[in-house]
Structures are given as structure tokens and as C-alpha cells.
Please model this.
Amino acid sequence: TAGVDTFAARQGAACKAVAETLRKSGRRLRLKGKWWSVPASSDGDDGLPSTQSSIEQVADLESMVGDYCVNIEDTIGNQHDRIEELLAFCDHLEKDMLRR
Model:
């Protein structure tokens, strides 16, 4: 069972590392939501308390990844819309300048 414990410990450490990376990225991108707005916990910056079981940590990580993806997809979608509006405005200005 020592191999299983070592594997479980590595998996737990990997989950915490991924969570910490996502949280830092989410904060840098100023994402909104529970994962990005709460202050760093005393257990570390990953948002996964060390008192949770590995199953709870995986569930939290899955939730965090899902929230991150939705936030990023919304952000990219909004930026795409804004770029389209700017391009249309530039086209309008070009046509207006050519008419003068």
C-alpha cells in the first residue's frame, strides 16, 4: 500500500499545483467568481483546503476548471464582439474620409 499512498500523495500535490496555477491566472485576468475573489487561504493559495479528502479536492478542482473555462470563454467572446465593433467603426471612418 506504500505505492498507492505515494501515488495518492503525488496526485494530491498535482491537483493543488493545478489549482494554484488556475487561481493565480484567474486573479491576473481579473476573473469574477468565488475562486478568484476570495483571499488566499491559510492552507495556501490554491483554494483547496488541506483538510478536504482527495475526492473533495478533485471535485473542487473540477469546479474551478469549469468556472475558469466559462470565464475565459466569456472574456474571449466579449473581446471578439468588441473587435468586430471597432472594425466596423474603422470601416465607417474610412468610408467617411474617402467621401470628403
Observations:
- The longest helix spans residues 54-99.
- The mean pLDDT is 83.
